[in-house]
Write a structure and sequence with these properties.
Blueprint (H helix, E strand, L loop, with lengths): L1 E5 L22 E2 L7 E3 L22 H12 L13 E2 L11 E4 L4 H7 L4 E8 L3 E9 L4 E2 L2 E2 L2 E2 L7 E2 H12 L25 H4 L7 H10 L10 E9 L9 E6 L4 E6 L6 E7 L2 E8 L24 E2 L9 E3 L4 E3 L2 E3 L7 E8 L7 E3 L2 E4 L3 E9 L10 E4 L3 E3 L5 E2 L10 E8 L6 E9 L2 E12 L5
Parallel strand pairs: 2-7, 3-4, 3-5, 5-7, 10-11, 12-19, 12-20, 23-30
Antiparallel strand pairs: 1-6, 6-7, 8-9, 12-15, 13-14, 13-16, 16-17, 16-18, 21-22, 21-24, 24-28, 25-29, 26-28, 27-28, 29-30
Amino acid sequence: MTRALLFFYSIAAALAYVRNVTPGGIPLARRDASNIQFQVGPSVRAGALNADGFPVITAASDPAAALAAAAATWSGVPGSIVRFAPLQPALYENDPRDARQTITAADTPETRSLVGPYLAVTVWSYTDDGAMLDADVILNPALTEGANHVAFSTDHSPGTYDLESVVTHEFGHALGANHSGILSASMFQGTLEFSSFTTPAEATAQGTLSADDVAFLVAAYPAASAAPAFGRIAGTVRFDSGAPVRGALVTAVDADAGVAVGALAGLADGSYTISGIPPGRYQLYAQPLDGPVVPGSLGLASGSVDGGFRTTFFGGNGAPASLSVGAGGAAAADIVVDSAPSTMHIDRLGTAPVGGSEWAWASLKAIVSGGACDVLVWVRGIDSGLDPDQVRLLGPGVTLRPGSLRLQPDAAINGVVPLRMTVDVAPRDTRAQVSLAVVNGADAAANSAGLVLLPAPAP
């Protein structure tokens, strides 16, 4: 039997990253993974207008280069067999049953109905054994925010979305990936637009694969070299009563390497497996799906997961344990969460120049290494300043400047006053992720890799 569905239909729990599955629980996978052929519909061109006369892609953009770059991003990852063939032009638009992968921005009533308010969707067809037969990427030709029409671009035009980042994300869905709980992963559910509050690095972040995205590739489409090169962590998430925690987000962070990989605890038994992670030393924590990733972000009904528990580190919030994972090795970590209701939650992160009066917040913020900046953290449940030891910056070469932690009442959002701190970042020549946790007694809140460290500029 063949079925068709949108990317957010269903998921496989208990795995590193999150995969889409058939109704019978079989993960979806491509049989043509080593030679995936996508075609580009005639509607995907610079200066294309929708039915209302508004641009779908800005006239100064280069969509062909952007789509080719998105395909190249998923191809050639060490440890994976995934390869995209060179994109080909198509004389037609998409058909979810023609077994031909197409990228389209055609403005039709059907397209508008499918994409709704989303930037783009990926529509699949597959067999009951999980074999993906077709995957069409549909870009929204009539996206609006408020009263304003919004276009795609490759030229960083203000008020547009980066075409390469959006298509890179959708190609992940075409490979069978669902959304990620890692905020700086390509498969995170949201994308930032170019604006005066967003840097180009932040607006294009999803055009780069994170360790979480690579873990999906290595586990779903492994090359022969994968098994001896990557490690695995497995365990369960349980309440202190012994009952399993259904649908907890589990994050493994190697602070020294700037790596964060996520998993979702099983909906039946609370078990999880994080495969395809680089060798290193990891801290783990489990947190509820209470935002920014919520059950609906992963195609789950809210009643199918457990909430209300406290974000809890492996080994306890007071003194978290570290876990060594070797190349080709496996480690075990059972997390027992505090079932008391949590009063804490990190709503958002922001950055600002050191001591500056201007600041900006978003789901993801980028910091150029080799300097310093102020980080703002809007944490619900904090009524007074914390001791610096209660703020954990889990990233390489990132240190909290002594005496800089304070509250900033004039930056309150929805009544939540942010913590503000100055961080010094050692120079580095590769990209890295930083997770942040705030601990208050037995309670805690975490932000999973919402900060990205960028290479230091050349002298």
